[in-house]
Amino acid sequence: MAEEILKVDHLNKYYGDWQALHDINFSLNKGEVVTLLGPSGSGKSTLIRTLNGLEPFRSGEIYFHGTKVDLSPKEWQKLRQKIGMVFQSYDLFPNLTVLENILLAPTKVQKRPREEVKKEALELLERVHLTEQAHAYPRELSGGQKQRIAIVRALAMHPELMLFDEVTASLDPEMVRGVLEIIKELADRDHMTMIIVTHEMNFAAKIADKVLFLEDGHILEETAGQEFFDHPQTKRAAEFLSSMEF
Ligand SMILES: Nc1ncnc2c1ncn2[C@@H]1O[C@H](COP(=O)(O)OP(=O)(O)OP(=O)(O)O)[C@@H](O)[C@H]1O
Question: In this protein, which residues make up the domain named ABC transporter (predicted)?
């Protein structure tokens, strides 16, 4: 039977008095890839940030491996070690080399032996074709390279779930493919469980097991990946798709 990693139950989120997310319900099984699609301002980033404890919410529950997450900062800190997140901005530490950026959290937070983590970091760097940049500083890298490092840095923590929030949105077009290929490989080769916010529709169509289509903070539809692109259930999703470039 499929193993459930995450479940979101009747989640409501406000910014001040204004409700940004309305009664969000969905679950995610091990190895599953969910993409969040929807117009600008529909709440995709808000939702993905809420799942990582970066945004507080007013009501509802989040379950991780069937256990209700207690919402204390300490609990989120623990959980964030199992949930990797990559953002649109790369957020690498500018004063640390690529390798030091990758080693920092596994050695300091997870207290794993430096040599073990280093060996693994070098393997991961090889996998994303950045071995030669191990001792470079972030300022010496292109946007696409920085984003690949940000992915490697998250993977070095051995996450059970990866969240990607528009990770190619700031990249020049020629950099986008290399980053998306790595994410696709994580799905195909590693069967990584992932939630992805993206405006890259061809990529979403290729990678999504399931699409959550959001509008105005509501999930308007939840549809199997290819089915969403071939036969969206709602008129609004059909309009959205026809307005997007493929
Ligand atoms: N910190 C904040 N304070 C107040 N309102 C916010 C905040 N962050 C986001 N919002 C609002 O919440 C709504 C959802 O924003 P969000 O960034 O989640 O949308 P999105 O679907 O990710 O959009 P995009 O595709 O443009 O990135 C928007 O109306 C936005 O203005």
Answer: 6-241
ipTM of this model? 0.97
Name the residue at shortest CA distance from atom 16 of ligand 1. 43
Ligand 1 pocket, residue 41 CB under 6 Å: yes
| Residues of each domain in the chain carrying CATH 3.40.50.300 | 1-82+177-246
**pTM assigned to the model:** 0.94
Q: How many helices (H) and strands (E) does the chain have?
A: 9, 10
Report which ligand 1 atom has the smallest distance to the Cα of 20.
12
Cα of 2 to ligand 1 centre, how many Å? 33
Q: E-assigned strands of the chain?
A: 4-15, 18-29, 33-37, 59-64, 67-68, 83-86, 161-165, 194-197, 210-215, 218-224
The residue whose CB lies within 8 Å of the most ligand 1 atoms, and thus the one to mutate among 37, 42, 214, 219, is 42
Could you tell me which CATH class the domain 1-82+177-246 is placed in? alpha beta
Residues 208-227, mean pLDDT to the nearest whole number? 97
Predicted local distance difference test score (pLDDT) of residue 182: 95
